[in-house]
Amino acid sequence: MVSEAIRRALVAGLAALASACTSHELIHREAFVCDAAAGQDCTRAIVERDHGNLVGFVEFDDQGWLWDRGQTRFILEMLEAEADRQRRGQSAKRGFLVFVHAHGWRHNAQRCDRDVACFRRALQLFAEMEGVASRPRQVVGLYVGWRGLSTSGPALWEIASFWDRKNTAERVGTGALVELLARLKQFRDQRPAAERTHLLLSGHSFGGQVMHRAISQMLISGAIGDRSRPARGVADLVVIVNPAYEASQYYPLFDVATNRCYPATQKPLLLTVTSSADRATGTAFPLGRSVSTVMETYQGPRQAQSDRTAVGHFPTFRTATLRGPGPLESRPEHGGDCGCPFFDSLPETKMSDLVATLRQVRLARKAHAAQIGPRGAPVEATAIDPAAIEETYGSVVLRPAPEYVPNFPYQMVYTDDTVIPSHNDVFSAPFVDFLRHYYNANVHFEPPKDVPAVCYRTGRNDESSCRRDGGPCFQLDPLPPPR
Fold it and tell me: Does this model's pTM top 0.85?
């Protein structure tokens, strides 16, 4: 009787679990450019036209394979066709702004998923910024879809999928996505320089894990080489928000990045932003890692901490803080109406605002340079006044840490609920507006060269190396500590 009761309970539990699982299938299978404004059904379309922007979908299965190579082929052919239209003078646009986004946990590529709707809206805001230019670029968004939402029903079912989806994200990041990004980079590199075609990559939550896995080795390779020249990136800018991966995964890049010099012309390559209001990575993540790493061995406690802490919550890597005008409220997780619950109060984009941001950033960096000190000497970071070097982007203020200059290309930024109020509210109006202004001031235009070339060093008794490098040198604490 007992065994029969147990068997029935197991069967019932498995049945409930099966009914809660979302389907594992290709969503966007129809190869055409859909126009929703014209009344077309875009539910299955690979590409849709939205407010003049092109929004495409590339989907990956749980093993990181492409669901359908035809998606990638159709999108690349569409890009080439649009480039040909521009060459023939059949388009008012010149060049491309290609924005690739990998969504996170509890989301997928359904057309009315909240992240899809908000990504669509964010592209509109970048297009508004392009619209103030004399010859705007064509904005193209590519949404990297995977089964971040593997269960449906009660919230507990979805929360229970956290670690399973993390494993899937790691496979997606080391799979066919690498090929897609390489092909997009090739498309960018083949465009005439006068077009100023740019490639932006972004990832949220486990989508940050996806993107980090796909590009981390290329970032490390780009940071190695002639230290008098700028470090090279995979794209023109990579933005990772509330990432759900271990700080230990970031350490190899950090180790290279903090043992070299950067010229004044160095542009940002990686912008990672984490909110203190993110409980998923701030609380649940370290608890789960403490259990799953119980058999691991480490050089010391700091290395152990790095393997149990989400990268954005690890203080050693922090290069700046970000704050907005006031606390924000979290928005509903699943809207289902193809709408985005953000951007209801974002001001109109004006050229005067973009110019004002550029001027303010330049003034802040001149103040920063004045406090750094002479060439060939270690910098006394404690002598730098943080309030004097703040940079304002839209309604948000970026304050660099005293030991990092703004042209350090791998920015690890910590914010709070005034900018990102929860784990999933990464499309908040202040944050997206910050990204637009940050990209415009630091990537689209040449970055202000008022911060001098600087060098970074970790380790003890290395001041002589700083002097040999010739520029002001920031001495940083190593991780793990030297023996």
Answer: yes
